[in-house]
Design goal:
Layout lengths: L1 H7 L2 H10 L5 H8 L3 H11 L12 H6 L5 H9 L22 E3 H15 L7 H18 L6 E6 L6 H10 L2 H4 L3 E6 L6 H10 L5 E6 L4 H12 L6 E5 L6 H9 L8 E5 L9 H7 L5 E5 L6 H9 L6 E5 L6 H11 L5 E5 L4 H11 L5 E5 L5 H11 L5 E5 L6 H4 L6 E9 L3 H10 L4 E9 L6 H9 L4 E8 L2 E2 L4 H7 L5 E2 L2 H4 L3 H9 L3
Parallel strand pairs: 1-2, 2-3, 3-4, 4-5, 5-6, 6-7, 7-8, 8-9, 9-10, 10-11, 11-12, 12-13, 13-14, 14-16
Antiparallel strand pairs: 14-15
Helix pairs in contact: 2-4, 3-4, 8-9, 11-12, 12-13, 13-14, 15-16, 16-17, 17-18
Length: 520
């Protein structure tokens, strides 16, 4: 296909496909802008799809959005203490507001707070009013420029009054979010959200991914989530999060709605399955279900396992992360039923670590993501597990209280890893042995957290950075993060290794499944 496009001279379409591939690679997209006008026209919309999520120091994009507001609104901002002189650009090259695809209420709020703190001389008594006004004005700009919103995320641990104006505009302009494909609700219940939730169930029926997390027990939570589920025509992925969220009616909605021939992925995150007795009935009614994910859920007892055993369909368990250990007999039954499907697994230290690892080795051969925490007494079994997985392994996190395993880890790793996180108390000799055996493995993202170990910074500089063995590196040593040592970061730029903050680069099982594996 690519060759035929080159021969036919259809280079603009080919270039568009190439640049689309870098959708979330912001440094590369910024570089594309400088190539020529064609590349710039393709890259700019991608950079402005979700600017509130791009790391920035000055939030300059907000004043670019606001450059077209009328004189009355400019005067109002000035009255709130926002300096008017030279804030707004005289003109812009693109209709940037029309490119917005993703809106997250918390990220908007955080961005506005940071931006106003940078451009105001002092916080005035009108500060909260200014936040509300800017938020409403931004939504107004997006609506007036006919933005085609793709993802809408309502994140609020409490009800913020600054949302009032923005939500009112949404209710008055249903086309703004009518076509959203991804909806995330992560809120503490408040009756002030009722009108928005009702609006979503009545007007948004094209959602393909629904993430629901209500942080307070209330019967209306399930009512609204059930209504939204029942209204969908093409729901493909759903995530239920937190153990005080009642599931009964929401699960029944999956059984009785249009989901039977569309739903492919269910993610249960931190759910308490106590008194949930209809899971097997729901699974039986889902005809195209491809994967089920259990992330740090509770009450995975014999009653829960029996429901899975009773299903006539395959229980396609793709992820299993546990912070509370299953009984070995129950786990054996679960893996016997679903081990062939398991790709992502996270295990914490427990008294059954030896038989647990033996079960994983016996039943799970397709693991791509592995997280081991505290298996200090079963290092050889951990090695056997990694070797058994072989080249399938792509993400590996090891969190031990020593570094003995480094003596044998380098030679058993696959030739290429997307992600390796070593969270250890490191002895320098062990690390040197690891590096010697590690030479044939390329890691895209390498994270090292040296917990109260010996100094290994020179080894990292000489054997990892200068030899360009990784693309992204995060190194934390005794709570000192390399990312914040500006002189060191500048020195390493010539080696094309990108230094990042350890906490920002770190991925746990929940983040992997929600953000990288299955969501969006």
């Amino acid at each position: 296909m690519t060759y035929s496009k080159i021969i036919s001279g259809d280079l603009p379409e080919l270039i568009n496909e190439i640049i689309q591939y870098f959708r979330n690679d912001f440094p590369t997209l910024y570089s594309c802008i400088l190539v020529n006008r064609l590349w710039c026209r393709i890259a700019i919309p991608l950079l402005w799809e979700n600017p509130f999520s791009i790391p920035t120091k000055n939030y300059h994009f907000i004043k670019i959005y606001l450059h077209n507001i009328n004189e009355h609104d400019k005067a109002k901002l000035n009255g709130y203490g926002i300096i008017n002189d030279d804030i707004f650009p005289s003109n812009t090259l693109f209709n940037y507001p029309s490119f917005i695809k993703y809106l997250n209420t918390w990220k908007i709020y955080r961005s506005i707070i940071t931006w106003t703190s940078l451009i105001t001389t002092a916080r005035t008594c009108y500060y909260s009013l200014s936040l509300s006004f800017i938020s409403k004005t931004l939504f107004k700009i997006f609506i007036e420029n006919k933005a085609n919103l793709h993802t809408f995320e309502v994140i609020a641990s409490m009800y913020f009054d600054y949302l009032n104006g923005a939500f009112e505009l949404i209710l008055q302009n249903p086309n703004f979010i009518r076509g959203i494909k991804n909806l995330k609700l992560q809120i503490t219940y408040s009756s002030k959200f009722d009108s928005l939730l009702s609006f979503l169930s009545l007007n948004c029926n094209s959602i393909s991914t629904f993430y629901v997390q209500f942080n307070r027990l209330n019967s209306l939570n399930e009512t609204f989530s059930s209504h939204i589920i029942n209204s969908q025509q093409n729901l493909k992925t759903i995530l239920f999060k937190y153990n005080h969220f009642p599931l009964h009616h929401s699960l029944l909605s999956l059984k009785n709605s249009n989901c039977s021939n569309t739903l492919k992925t269910i993610i249960f995150c931190r759910i308490n399955f106590k008194n949930i007795i209809i899971l097997n009935e729901v699974i039986e009614h889902l005809n195209v279900l491809e994967s089920i994910h259990l992330l740090y859920c509770h009450s995975l007892n014999s009653d829960f396992i029996q429901q899975i055993i009773n299903t006539t369909k395959q229980f396609k368990l793709k992820s299993l992360f546990m912070d509370v250990m299953l009984q070995i007999d129950s786990l054996r039954l679960l893996l016997r039923k679903s081990g062939d499907y398991l790709e992502n697994i996270g295990l914490v230290r427990n008294e059954f670590e030896k038989p647990l690892l033996e079960l994983i080795i016996s039943y799970c051969v397709k693991i791509k993501y592995l997280e081991l925490q505290g298996y200090n007494q079963s290092i050889h079994l951990a090695f056997d597990l990694i070797k058994n997985i072989g080249q399938n392994l792509n993400y590996l996190t090891i969190d031990f209280d020593n570094s003995i395993l480094l003596q044998g880890l380098g030679q058993i790793l696959p030739s290429k890893l997307e992600y390796l996180n070593l969270n250890l108390m490191i002895i320098a000799n062990d690390f040197e042995i690891f590096l010697k055996n590690f030479q044939n493995t390329f890691v895209k993202k390498l994270l090292i957290n040296n917990k109260m170990g010996q100094d290994i910074s020179s080894y990292i500089e000489d054997n990892i950075i200068k030899r360009q063995r990784v693309k992204y590196l995060a190194f934390k040593d005794h709570d000192t993060d390399l990312f914040f040592l500006d002189d060191q970061v500048d020195k390493f730029k010539i080696y094309n290794v990108i230094i990042q903050c350890y906490e920002d680069l770190k991925i746990d099982g929940e983040k992997y499944v929600e953000e990288m594996g299955e969501i969006y």
